[in-house]
Amino acid sequence: MTPSRRTLISRAITTLALSALSALPALAQGSPKLKVGLMLPYTGTYAAMGNAIENGFRLHITEQGGKLAGREIEFVKVDDESDPSKATDNVNKLIKRDNVDVLIGSVHSGVAMAMAKVAKDTGTMLIVPNAGADAVTGPMCASNIFRSSFSNWQPGYAMGEVVAKKGHKKVVTITWKYAAGDESIRGFKESFEKGGGKVVKELSVPFPNVEFQALLTEIAAAKPDAVYTFFAGGGAVKFVKDYAAAGLKKTVPLYGAGFLTDGTLDAQGADAADLLTTLHYADSLGTPRDNAFRLAYAKAYKLQPDVYAVQGYDAAQMLAVGLTAVKGDISKKAEFSAALEKARIDSPRGPFTLSKSHNPVQDIYLRQVGGKKNKLVSIASKALADPGRGCKL
Ligand code: BEZ
């Protein structure tokens, strides 16, 4: 055979081999990296939460040797700025430009609802590691959408029972005017009024406004038995400090969904002392599972974990459950979802399962601020399941 004929034949073989390879599913080519789209706030009032969620997520993957179901993880990150008006564009870029295999996000309910709409339309797997928007596991629920955190209804409902049992009758509520605040108040009101109390005034400021002075003056004038609130992140720090500075802490007991004092205690200092809140995590659970998590997190990041870190860690645990069931092939969506639907997630918060609409069924703790910790007081609501109203799955 002449040298030029040999070259031609060898080129033809190479071309054939390459085209055969590209026709194989990605997995058969030696487990390419799994692309995880992290859509979280890295700036603004919720920035610290975005970072804690990412830290928790990465910690679980590190504990698994850097791979889930044999696949290395590649991250594509977007700062969603907690801005719902940019959310649809941001999530579309992750799916269409970056070709992510799975979406993790976000913190803000408005952003998460935009993500859920796109995830449902495109069939992209979505795990929500914070945002509690009731709709995500309500009317917007879908077989490919899961939550590792809570619904806004859950901590609010649990606190309504606590406040009613304490004998308070007349409560004023105050929050940010958006889904998270509205739904937290609605959950509170549902159980508080069932328990014999009355919400006499519902106050709000637009998100992420922190000008509370005029509303604090209204609270003082209304002289309620207690106040219930939803604020989080930087807004929660400012609210707790302003509430104390207005002299209200001494006269009107303040109760909140636990975000009020989670990840915020360093900045709130003495103004947060003794506050009672309800949440699906506390800093002093003392279980071997939680102790190990807290130790590993502190070692990895030189920081104490908070509820957001736990939710990020559990989002990675949930991804691992689904991926393991499909041996790393996330295109097998029905099998991925079926595995999660029957999973029991061994969370630092305590084990949880997922409701029919894919929201954690979990204990909601009553906690009290002591020093730099949200200390466990009791279980306010055992295995509380969001009603999943409007979900058809
Ligand atoms: C939300 O927007 O759903 C949310 C934000 C921060 C803490 C909790 C809930």
Q: How would you explain this protein's 3D organization?
A:
It contains 12 helices and 14 strands. The radius of gyration is 23 Å and the shape is globular. The longest helix is centred in the first third of the chain and has 21 residues, at 3-23. The model is unreliable at 7-28 (pLDDT under 50). The strands form 2 sheets. Strands 7, 8, 9, 10, 11, 12, 13 and 14 form an 8-stranded mixed beta sheet that branches. Strands 2-3-1-4-5-6 form a 6-stranded mixed beta sheet, sandwiched between helices. With 393 residues, the chain is of the alpha/beta class. Helices cover 42% and strands 21% of the residues. Benzoic acid (BEZ) binds at residues 107-109, 130-133, 152, 180, 232, 259.
Ordered list of secondary-structure elements with their pairings:
Blueprint: H1 3-23, E1 34-40, H2 47-63, E2 67-68, E3 71-79, H3 84-97, E4 102-104, H4 109-122, E5 125-128, E6 145-147, H5 153-165, E7 170-176, H6 179-194, E8 198-205, H7 213-222, E9 226-230, H8 233-245, E10 254-257, H9 265-268, E11 276-279, H10 288-301, H11 307-325, H12 333-341, E12 353-354, E13 360-370, E14 373-384
Parallel strand pairs: 1-3, 1-4, 4-5, 5-6, 7-8, 7-9, 9-10, 10-11
Antiparallel strand pairs: 2-3, 11-13, 12-13, 13-14
Helix pairs in contact: 2-11, 3-4, 5-6, 11-12
The structure holds benzoic acid.
